[in-house]
């Protein structure tokens, strides 16, 4: 995503954080990546933080649209706060490990509290595709608010959590990318991503197919046993 967006006239700069709120919906693999980048003994609590929880995963929403069905409200109606990972200087404290939803929030014009981000339909659709693909990567995992998942991982590490909270959703596999034949640039972008070599002799698509194959062989959420020994 970073390489792709570097080719566009994005105006986002360090300290620009109007988009940095608590409306952060991620998959478990993204939350795990961020969690493992925090200090080993760092304790955190988001109990006093106000943030929405999704009622559907990104792929569930995409699937409903694809089937021509009406989508229910996708989130709880709660006050949205500034992201707690913002530093005093207004910078992202977890920038290198920020989730995909943060990476696709960008603007072609400078934002203000009164004027939100502006982006082209191409960039918007590219972001939606990225969110769909990352959920496909985390097939068999969880989906929800970043803050719920981080607290869940913290409890797992302490051995305090036995059951998955009901507000954490299961990821959904949805292979059908919503691309029209006329959207040549987007189709080329997906093709380039799939063909990208990520390991010796293996492309991104090869590894994605391996993930699906391995998932079909194992029981639900067994990745948690590998990560935490539960």
Our count of helices gives 9
Report mean pLDDT, rounded to a whole number. 86
What class do helices, strands and sheet pairing give?
mainly alpha
Task: Characterize the main sheet.
Answer: 3 strands, antiparallel
Whole-Å distance between the termini? Answer: 34 Å
Q: What order do the helices and strands follow? A: HEHHHHEHEHEEHH
Strand order of the largest sheet: 1-2-3
Q: Would you count the extended β strands for me?
A: 5
Beta-strand content bin: 5-15%
Low-confidence stretches: none
The level of helicity is 25-40%
The global form is globular
Which value, in Å, is the CA radius of gyration?
18 Å
Please give the structural blueprint:
Layout lengths: L1 H4 L19 E3 H8 L22 H9 L33 H4 L17 H17 L4 E4 H13 L10 E2 L13 H12 L1 E3 L2 E2 H14 L5 H6 L2
Antiparallel strand pairs: 1-2, 2-3, 4-5
List keywords for this structure.
230 residues, two-stranded antiparallel sheet
Question: How would you sum up this structure, described in words?
Answer:
It is built from nine helices and five strands. The protein has 230 residues and is mainly alpha-helical. Strand 4 and strand 5 form a beta hairpin.
Give a brief rundown of this model.
This protein has 230 residues and is mostly helical. The chain has nine helices and five strands. Helices cover 38% and strands 6% of the residues.
